[in-house]
Amino acid sequence: MVLLESQVKLKTGDSQPDFELLGIDDKKHKLSDYREYQGILIIFMCNHCPYVKAKFDAFNELYEKLGDKIAIIGINSNDSKDYPEDSFENMKKTAEEKGLKFDYLVDDTQQIAKKYGAVCTPDPFLFNNEGKLFFHGRIDNAMKPDDDATEKTMIINIEKMLSNEKIKKDFEPSIGCSIKWKEN
Fold this sequence. Notes:
The protein contains five helices and eleven strands. It is α/β, with parallel strands linked by helices. The protein has one domain (3-178): Glutaredoxin (3-Layer(aba) Sandwich). The strands form two sheets. Strands 3-2-6-5-4-8-9-10 form an eight-stranded mixed β-sheet, with helices on one face. A three-stranded antiparallel β-sheet has the order 1-11-7. It is globular. It starts with a strand and ends in a 6-residue tail after the last strand.
């Protein structure tokens, strides 16, 4: 397991890169499908990473609290050839087992992760209703899988975004396993 922190490629105010990806519902999902929401939270994630596994409850809490206002989208960019736990079929199983209600999409070419500058799982990106990056970083302040969160960073930042308030930091790195890149 290679542990990485989020890196800055997209900067606050940058436009959200477009995508069209297959979801676990076997339908294609485009960025434009989510424009009726007041914002979009993209979480680069996978099935096998212990840092992602530790956040499934937090992901579900985000959806329960804010899923009617914010589109929440999980994207798996891992190479499933070398990491079969992250296969499309296992994405479906994981979503069912963990009770994920948000869209979970596969980035099998890994081009979307590269456009966003995602490097680890989880690697969350929050965009406002104009498609501009508002916050890039952690879900909460539990930085190791066994830590308990004492601050729900993403919920706080989403609520501030929805209220047109400024946030203290627009980048607070997430930590997780490296995205498993395909060999060229």
